[in-house]
Amino acid sequence: MFEVELKYPVARHDDIRQQLLVMDSTQTGISEHSDEYFNQTLLDFAGNDIALRIRSQEDSHTLTYKGPNLDTRAKIREEIEIKLNTQDKEKFRNMLFGMGFHSVLLVRKQRESIAVRWKDEDIEICLDTIEGIGTFVELELVVESKQQVDSAKAILESLAKELSINSEPTTVSYLEMLLDKQ
Q: Is this structure's pTM higher than 0.70?
């Protein structure tokens, strides 16, 4: 599976929310995420453009590996996720620490998730507010193979145009943005 994501910095979410109402979208949730990122000195995650994180939302936890980005304009990368209960989350953290991993940073965000059908695809739109950084809009489409990536990217770019998003997309992760501010 490949996640194709276009992330745009925006001044605020209000105008995009209004346009999504006209498009017959569905709000699928509002949540607070706490994403703990890990690194291991010998593996150089930043240099290899990979990520390992545990996302916590209330009592739900997800371990995620993100492979290297395959594009310069969009985030296109393989993702592997495993659901963890709270007990397993703590065991897994202890395993990572035992193997020489360390916690890099905790990224906190408020996310409003919205589903919209666009060009015969189900698109997830995330209106994110990142503590210490600002507001962003993420347009996401998950595809089965690399052969579908270019088409997915074009669909997301056309949706961004329809939503009147005028900023340039960024491939810089929230983690990288926060680290740059330190």
A: yes
